[in-house]
Specification:
The chain contains 16 helices and 21 strands. By secondary structure, the protein is an alpha/beta fold. The chain has 3 domains: 187 residues, FAD/NAD(P)-binding domain; 111 residues, FAD/NAD(P)-binding domain; 106 residues, 2-Layer Sandwich (Enolase-like, domain 1), CATH 3.30.390.30. The strands form 5 sheets. Strands 1, 2, 3, 4, 5, 6 and 16 form a 7-stranded mixed β-sheet that branches. It has a 5-stranded antiparallel β-sheet with strand order 17-18-21-20-19, sandwiched between helices. Its EC number is 1.8.1.4.
Length: 488
């Protein structure tokens, strides 16, 4: 170790941690990351990257099977060993050596061990051998400890050795059968991945799939999973788990039926990693999500202890549990930490340099099912709750020339939510094969508050899925300069 004090100390070593430290260093500060596991965090080794590598095998085969001429070339199923080997490569074989080289090149120091607050701007790090190091932050401490899978208290479940997303994305064998408890993004994506790799998958959802999105998203994904051979059970819960004499897991459901499976994956939500961070030393309870303002400063606790030095970035603040949003927050936080340390102007107005305004109304997300779900901004329900006067426009993506070329029997749907007062987009949702690449255009339109009058001049290429923008605008009718929404 070099010095025992740094301008910024970051607890956690995932992508949010790397980004906040990098921006602070670029602003002229010194920074240290404290990490007890792999530098790079959940996304690199147990979430985004390995999960999408597993999913891609099945979706690539499905895409080929929808195109005569290609379908005949992929009559056999997936090559599981090759698929898992590629996943291992994408996850860097669970080695963070590349990330360590990047830290060194960025001028960021690293200390291995478990970090916890032990006072104002003070962090105590416990190494694996039990030794401790006490560090002092000159300006700020950033908590970037992320979240962990939430295990429900179902009798017998813990004894059945269930998978969480970590085990599912790092498994070295595909089980003959897999039961997934949950109906959110992880559940839907892992059902897609493992059915595509040849497992017999049963999905058990308490209400339905992807219920936080527009209703048609969950409906289309449910239909597609069922068509691919997945058993989707909705409006039912798991009440008990037990081991059979053959070593399998038997799940008893609330309707009295049983599901017998080789492995169980629990995907019922996330919990913040805040239980052993020393938060009590500054008057904050452990185990809770950490509330922050738009510059990512932690709110609450003892006012005389928190001050303007403690930040919470990424999953741990509960604002948007997505890697790209955590990085976005980290860029804003790293810049504002440097600005406050250097005594320069803080730009904390909405959409300013030092705030995470997009967390409130412009969060993009892709669910990598087959079909994909790409969404950004407000759903119809969100917009109505917020009190907007809206107009909702829908379009069947199968009517596009681009989808006709892309796949036979293309199934997909698009929706935009328009603020009728300002004639700007509030939200957009696309469901269909390859719709993920439509999403950034919608994100730009929402963040930039681009008037629909101007969007008419953004000409989509033909034949592509982007033509949906023209069709949605035609459905809306070209707004007149005086605001009268009549067709020209």
């Amino acid at each position: 170790m070099q010095p025992q004090n740094y301008d910024l100390i970051v607890i956690g070593g995932g992508s949010s941690a790397e980004n906040v430290a990098d921006r602070a260093v670029q602003g002229g500060l010194t920074a240290l990351i404290v990490e007890s596991e792999l530098v790079g965090g959940e996304c690199s080794y147990w979430a985004c990257m390995p999960s999408k590598a597993l999913i891609r095998v099945g979706t690539a085969l499905s895409a080929a099977r929808r195109v005569p001429g290609a379908a005949e070339a992929v009559q056999t199923g997936p090559h599981v060993a090759a698929a898992l080997s590629r996943r291992d490569t994408i996850a860097n074989a669970w080695s963070d050596s590349g990330q360590l080289r990047w830290l060194a090149s960025a001028g960021i120091d690293l200390l291995r061990g478990h970090g916890r607050l032990s006072g104002v701007r003070e962090v105590t790090v416990t190494a694996k051998d039990g030794s401790t190091t006490v560090l002092t932050a000159n300006h700020a401490v950033a908590l970037c400890t992320g979240s962990a899978a939430l295990l429900p208290s179902i009798p017998g479940l813990a004894e059945s050795a269930p998978w969480t997303s970590r085990e599912a994305t790092s498994a070295h064998q595909v089980p003959a059968s897999l039961a997934i408890i949950g109906g959110g993004v992880v559940a839907a994506e892992m059902a897609t991945a493992y059915s595509g790799l040849g497992a017999s998958v049963t999905l058990i959802a308490r209400s339905g799939l992807l219920t936080r999105f527009e209703p048609f998203a969950g409906e289309l994904v449910t239909n597609a999973l069922r068509e691919s051979g997945v058993t989707v059970l909705t409006d039912v819960t798991t009440t008990q788990a037990s081991r059979t004499s053959a070593g399998e897991v038997q799940l008893r459901l609330s309707d009295g039926s049983d599901v017998t499976t080789t492995k169980v994956l629990v995907a019922t939500g996330r919990a913040p990693r805040t239980t052993d961070l020393g938060l009590e030393t500054i008057g904050l309870p452990g185990g809770d999500w950490l509330g922050v303002d738009d510059t990512l400063l932690v709110q609450g606790g003892s006012p005389d202890l928190t001050g303007a030095w403690l930040y919470a970035i990424g999953d741990v603040n509960g604002r948007a549990l997505l890697t790209h949003q955590g990085k976005y927050q980290a860029r804003a936080a790293g810049d504002v930490i440097a600005a406050r340390a250097n005594g320069t102007r803080v730009d904390d107005a909405p959409w300013g340099t030092h705030v995470a305004t997009a967390d409130h109304s412009a969060v993009p997300q892709v669910t990598f099912t087959d079909p994909e779900v790409a969404s950004v901004g407000l759903t119809v329900a969100d917009a109505e709750i917020a009190g907007y006067r809206i107009r909702v426009l829908d379009y069947d993506l199968s009517w596009l020339g681009g989808s006709t070329v892309l796949a036979d029997g293309y199934v997909g749907h698009a929706r935009i939510v328009v603020d009728e007062e300002r004639h700007v987009l509030l939200g957009a949702t696309f469901v269909g094969q390859d719709v993920a690449e439509l999403l950034h255009a919608a994100t730009i339109a929402i963040v930039g508050e681009v008037p629909l009058e101007r969007l008419w001049h953004a000409v989509p290429s033909y034949p592509t899925l982007s033509e949906v923008w023209l069709r949605l605008l035609e459905e809306y009718g070209r707004p007149m300069p005086d605001g009268d929404n009549g067709l020209r």
